[in-house]
Each structure stands twice: as C-alpha cells, then as structure tokens.
Amino acid sequence: MRSFIQRIRQYRRDVKLFLLFTLAANVGIGMFMLIFNLYLLQLDLREDYIGAFNAIHTVGIAAMSLAMGILINRLGIWRCVMLGFIFFLGSSILLITITHPVILLSLAVLGGVGTAFLFVPTMPFIVDLTRSSERQGVAALTFSLNSLSMTVASLVGGFTPRALAAVSPVEAPSAAAFRYTLFIGLGIASLALIPLFRMSEQRKRSKPEDASQETQTGLPPLEPGRVRRHMVVFIAVGGLMSLGAGMVFPFYNVYLSTLGASAGQIGLIFSIAGIAAAMLGLGSPYLASRFGAQTAVVMVRLAPLPLFLLLIFFPALWIAVVAHMVRTASINMGWPIDSSYIAGVLPAKARTAVFGYRSGAWNIGFALAAFAGGNVIVRYGYSATFASYALFMTLAMLLFYIYFSRFHASQSAAAAQVATQPLVDPVPDVLSKDTTQPGSGKTRLSP
C-alpha cells in the first residue's frame, strides 16, 4: 500500500486533479444512475417505458460519440469535458423537474449528449495526461476510482430517500423522495468542476497532434489499411458487447427489486460490488503483464457469463448479487486493459477517433438492445436477456482474440524475416567502367 501511495504522489499535478475530478463526478453521476430508474417506477412507468427511455438516452450518447473524435482534435479534450459536464448538469435538472412521459422521452436525448462528454473522453484524457510507462497504472486507478465513487453513490443514494422521509413529511419510497435524492447527487457532481478548472493552462489548450502512423508499443508503423481494419474490429467488438449488455443492465436494479431487494439493499449491493471492483481493478496491470493483454481481456470479460446463465434456471437473489459483483469487477479490470491496448496499437489521431466511434457503436447497440430488452422482459421475463448477454459477449471475445492473434503472428513473422536479413546491402562484384551519367554526377551500378 505504501508503494502504491508513493506512486500516486509521483504523478503530475494534472493527473492528480483528473483523478479528483473522476472521483467527485462519478459520485454524483452514480447516484443519478442508481436512483433514476427507481424514480421512473414511482411515476408509474414500467420496464417497457424505461427501456424506451434508455434507448433514446443512448442514441444521444451514440450520436455525440461519433463526432467526439473530431471535436477533441479541434477543441481539445479539456474543453470537451468541461462543456459537456456543464451540459450534463443542465439536462439532468430538466429530467428531474419534468414528469410528463412524452416530454421526458424527448429530453432523454439531451441527457445522452451530456453523458457522452463525460465518458467518451476518459481514455483520450488519460493518454494525453500520462507517459506510456504509467498509462496502464493510471487507467486502472481511474476505473477503480470510478467503482469507488459508484460505491459511495450507491450507499448515499440507496439510503437518502429513507433519511429524507425520517426528517421531513416526504414518504419513502415516493417520487418526491427520489427526486430530492437526484438533486443531491447533482449537487455533489458539480463539485467536480473545481479540480477541472484548476488544471494547467497547457492542459486546457492541449490537442492530439501526432498524425503519424507510429504506435507506442515498439511495433513497426502501420499502413493506413491496417489501421482502418484495426479500428473496424475494435468498433465491432464494442458493438457486439453492447447488444448483450443493453438487454440486461439498464434493468438490473429493477430485476433485483423483483427478487425482493429494497432500495436500500440495492444500494448496499452496488456498494459492495463497487468496493470489490475498485480493489480488483488495481490488479489489471498485473493480469496484462502475466497473461498478455489479449488473454487477460478475454478472461475478465467472460468471467460473469456462467453466473448469468445460472440465473436462467435458478433466479435467486444471492446468485444475482454475486453475478453483479463479478460483472462489476469484470468491467473495472477489462476496460483499462483493452483501452491501453488500443492506445498501444493505434497511432494518435486514430486512437482519439476510435474511442469515439467505439463508444458510438456501443451506445447504438445498447440503445437498440435496451429498447428490445424492455419489451422482452415485460412479455417473457429476464431469462432471454441473460442468454443474449452470454451469446453476444462470447461472439465479441472470439472476434477480438482471433483477429489480433493473427495480427501479432504476422507481425512476429515479419520481424523474424527482417532479423535474418543483412544489415548492409552486399557490394556488387563488378562496377561498370562508366559509373556516372554524363553531367549528372550520380554514380550507378551496371545493370
């Protein structure tokens, strides 16, 4: 622990401020994410409406994500994060204060646009802030702080409605109690503006400038066609994962409530999962170095699948709780590894673009799956959505592992071929007597 704290102290000031921003912002955002679906239930809206809301919300995220690479390259990462965070706060206030179902659906897209500015630039920000040697450690710490802040959010958000009922005429659970809880969450989130504004002027003006095809892993420069193929695979993997996740996880707190968990218990479940994920996430650099990034990503991404398949046959609360904990840890360990992997195999501007496109693909798939998932749950229950999650996650990991295994095999073969070639071209045995072209001054070999 002492060496871990010492390593954090050695980070530059802007890195520390970014970590503080992450901690404060995600506490407030985590409260909002935990409570908002339960708030919609208190407005007498069911899972099919929640699915439609989440679908429209993620369409907003997707649309903004597709343009994020262009905006970051033009405006800079800091400006995108700052403007998007302010926009998120404003749109969230509208979502809390307006209760008409149709108007809420129209506002969902604005909330999605604001949310995109918070999550999509995270890894580009880390790449911009860090040296390559410290990047995976900072990425792991950032995602662990995300889990820690979500843990605090789950504790505070889960018990705040009951606390409000104890000190005021507000009933718990009720729409009013959840609404006030959401406002408290936004107030906490707004504190994240302080470390954001205290970053250096150099950071505020920073933009990705490296347009070359060189990567940061020591591999040879990539030809443009190879870069495009890499980008397509990264985007496709994110899209496939989103199709499975969107069928299940917008409704998971509701699913826990159907198994008998109260709002306070759901908050506690999310809190324990967040603590475990925060601790385990710090071990992701070790997993990557021990097994290799590809194998480590596949291991952690597929780890939750057996538990969700078990829920199809045995829908017990304790299994659902363990499944959520394993999946939360999987996310926390998986994203730093594969995001750092992307940063290593793609050149600078391609990295920035692919993070945006990948998020766009994720959110488009998530939106479609959430819309379908809400209707499937209302008609058939949760089992079909758990099976879909297992199917699409498996397909995504097969594509990722097979494609990049072949790529690295071809790179190794090319490197071995280069290693067997002489360092200097052999000198020809015979030179023509007329070794220069008249008037050219250029020496040439005989044909």
Overview of this structure, please?
With 447 residues, this protein is mainly alpha-helical. It has a single domain, classed as MFS general substrate transporter like domains (Growth Hormone, Chain: A, Up-down Bundle). It contains 19 helices and no strands. The chain has helices spanning 2-10, 13-42, 47-75, 77-97, 101-119, 122-129, 132-167, 175-190, 193-197, 201-205, 224-248, 252-258, 263-281, 284-291, 293-302, 305-313, 317-345, 348-380, 383-420. Helix 11 runs parallel beside helix 18, helix 11 packs antiparallel against helix 19 and helix 16 (305-313) runs antiparallel to helix 17. The chain is globular, with a radius of gyration of 25 Å.
Short description:
Helices cover 80% and strands 0% of the residues. It has 447 residues and is mostly helical.
